[in-house]
Amino acid sequence: MSVPAFRWRTVPREALAWRDWDGDFVVRNHLSGSTHLLGPLAGQVMLALLALDDPATVDDLAAALEAPAAVQASDWTASIEGVLAEFERLGLALPEMR
Amino acid sequence: MIVADLPPVELARQLAGPGVRLRTGPVVTEIRSRLSEVAQGLALHYAHHSVETTADFADFHVSVAPPATLRKWVRPQVLFELDGKPPFLPLPRDQAFPLLEWGLNWCVSNHCHQYLIVHAAVVARSGRAALLPGPSGSGKSTLCAALVNRGWVLLSDELTLIEPVTGNVVALPRPVSLKNASIEVIRGAFPRAVLGPVVYDTTKGSVAHMKPPAEGVCCALEPAQPRWIILPRYEAGAASRLSRLPKGRAFMQLADNSFNYSLHGRKGFAALAQTIDACDCHEFTYGALDDAMAVFDELARNA
Questions:
Q1: Per the count of CB atoms within 10 A, which of B42, B131, B168, B255 is most buried?
Q2: Which of B78, B111, B144 is the last residue of a domain?
Q3: In terms of domains, do B129 and B260 share one?
Q4: Residue contact A30–B251, C-beta within 8 A
Q5: Torsion on CA atoms A48, A52, A54, A56, rounded to nearest 10
Q6: What number of C-beta contacts closer than 8 Å exist between A and B?
Q7: Looking at CA atoms only, how far is residue A40 from chain B in angstroms?
Q8: Which residues of chain B make contact with A28, given a CB cutoff of 8 A?
Q9: What is the pLDDT of residues B118-145, one digit of tens each?
Q10: What is the widest separation between alpha-carbon atoms in chain B?
Q11: What is the span of the domain harbouring residue B289?
Q12: What ipTM describes this predicted complex?
């Protein structure tokens, strides 16, 4: 099973509360009752997912976010996949079949 | 009427009989006890606190008394009760006053959910509050005691009450609990500070309470606006060092140190975020009180 085969969306926006303090991103999931401090990349991915009306693939997200200059495209995609897997574990985002 | 208006015999009589309704900030607690340690502790530490003589309502009805066992003369014990039920196991009798203090903390932290409650000392200058969250041993009570002896107003040594809608800190001025080495540190640095007797061998080590300065108890009636969140850490011999704490981490520190953040749900998140928005957030390492005081004075000047 390949992660890019999925499209990702957050849990319903009304189930989330978040704050972004200059890249210091905190999100509360009202469904789980848990609050999470996200790292810089995870914060960017979360903001990107929240900004999209439709679910996004990893490639969509990789294109929407600006990769650091020294990072290769494959590594960038892998980093985002890692973040999404963590979001799924935390109940913040869900994959859908394309 | 304040506690100091009651002659010791009358205070003891009321404690042994109908109870004394003590106001600490927004909380009225009816306290009953026949123990001299409790009467003396209240007379010393709560001298400037109000006694409610007309109110027909108390938030908590508590007592400190020997348990109903035969251990009256051999290693006597005392029991704290709320509404006639003990939340804790009995402790040795010489811990009666600390037990009352811990019991009062328990009452507030487990019941006053109209506030967002954070395990943090909080002091204020000119209506601006500095929250000092931290676990036992971090040096927050020592720092808090030093600050209130240097003109900061004590809002609370242990429990920061945040009003969720306004974001203001509501004062709960009670004695500062000093432990172990910090007892002599405060006694040495502030000879005029009023400390009660040292109680040894508690679960927290040696404990002594410091009376809140009278002006603090009186000034603390007005709510204060959160202005700083400062995570203190005592490190022997260290120079004072104030470093910026990212706001997300500060948020998580407050949430982790809150007794009821989760209980407040969405409103808890909003209230805590509002607090973070209003504050400069720092980590603070200190090894000497004079240096530490200078840092806080500088913060207050630049506010």
A1: B131
A2: B111
A3: yes
A4: no
A5: -20
A6: 40
A7: 11
A8: 266, 269
A9: 999 999 999 999 999 988 888 899 999 9
A10: 60
A11: 116-301
A12: 0.90
